[in-house]
Amino acid sequence: MSAPAARGFNQATKLALEHTIVPGDAGEGGYRRLIDGPREEMHVRNDLGGTRPSGRFRSLVCFVQVSDLHVADVQSPARAEFLDRLGDFDSPYLETFGKNRTYRAQEALNHHVTEAMACAIRRLEGGPLTGAPLLFAVSTGDATDNCQANELEDYVALLDGGTAVRADSGDLTRYEGVGAPSSYDVRYWHPDGTPIGEADDFPRSRYGFPTVPGLLDACRAPFVGTGLGLPWYAVNGNHDALIAGTYSVDAAFSQLAVGGEKPVAIDGPVDFDVFLSRGEFGQDLASLLTLPVKTKAVTADPMRRLVDAREWIAAHLRSAGDPKGHGFDEVAVAEGRAYYGFDVDEIRFLALDTVNRAGGWQGSLDEAQFQWLEQELTKGHQSFYATSGKTVVHDGKDRLFVLLSHHAIDDLTNCYEPSGETRYGSAEISALIGRFPNVICWFNGHTHINAVTPITPRVHDRSGAWQVTTASHIDWPQQSRVVEIAIDTATGDLVIGVMTVDHAGLVDPRRGELSDALTLAGWSREIAANAWQARRSSYEPIGRGASSDRNVVLVRSSPYRLARAS
Fold this sequence. Notes:
This protein is of the alpha/beta class.
């Protein structure tokens, strides 16, 4: 159920709701510049019951969710942009392999999008329900693109702020990735234009992409990150832990990452029946390394080394930002344990690690984490339900729970485990949280699409949880969320206000200077809105979701009696 919210919600969000950024009319090749579109209302959703909000709220917490930053080293030999060519319109492998998005024309600008989002978050005045101050931010995974050490250091620096970052590696005097003038290939976007004697690249000739001279030099210039200006917590994603978000880190690929030969194109016939028969998991890696490819020489760089879970966690402890470790501690480093909990008022936040390090882009939980989750939920309930449906009453203290993870519940389908140990997927996890009515919402990313869905309990008839999935910073529309959880003091219901946040990049980057990070972020957003791999006829890519997936007021009845005093 969805309806526009009543007037009277917090006026601090008024400016953010006055307009939204949308694609304009299609031009040559279907290319669409971005424009300021009409105001979007807040929609009330009562899918999980509860009554219409009164507008009189007691705020419990207000925070920001950013997701899928994909801070990338696009010049790295460990990237596989060439696989995207298998999904080209004229590829003999299109029907077999499909579109896979291992290359995005805008991804050299990911550092600048994160910077522009930090600027936007600093401009927020408060939560969407009461205007309560923002207490913290959470990054729900895929902060890095390819689990490299230099990407990891840059992402932490961008969120902390105050440190110079540089979207560059290898030879710092020239751009060495695909799209460089020195290695012209019509299959990739070349913003500097067409060299003499060459044909225009396909993105410009077929899809109307612009020429932006100097872009690839400008994006590599160092700049000092603004930072979120908030304490922030980190959640592990598949791209933070796995090569291309899919393959387990191994010695051969680690050597490729720091070396001087970058694969740029398929260079011979491929038996994809054999390649695809191996499934989505880590055993694919040997096949990937044996593909017949054309390479180009790049400058080797030891900072491109691939990191494991312990090094990823340890980087957060080295950060100067708050809180210390961003959710992790020294024990987490020693154990490689990327899940934890923290408390705000009467809410317990549980940050899950849904990455399967055996390989695969979808997620699951291992045995130890599944047991930990059940124990945490048990401690926060005076009463819950056994697997049989019988009510269990014990001496736990009631508190509300908010789950944080990279994968959404429907993406917890990868229980591959070569050791034979048990992993738990969506069915088991859904059944588990269905036994604990104090779980009120679950924030995640991974799909790069804004979506808000109810999780209906399976064991009991008390209200379920809201799942809020947030779009990425790499694909259109490059948005985050500001969230406020409150009690309706008139009805006693829980109310969750969720509002999308556009980054501060220029809507029309042609009006800015390439030396400005916000101009570069604006170019990234416009190019992302025109990704030819994701076009549906003449329409924009699907990442924005429906209006009821963006600015929403989510209602559910309280699972236990909460104090209503304002």
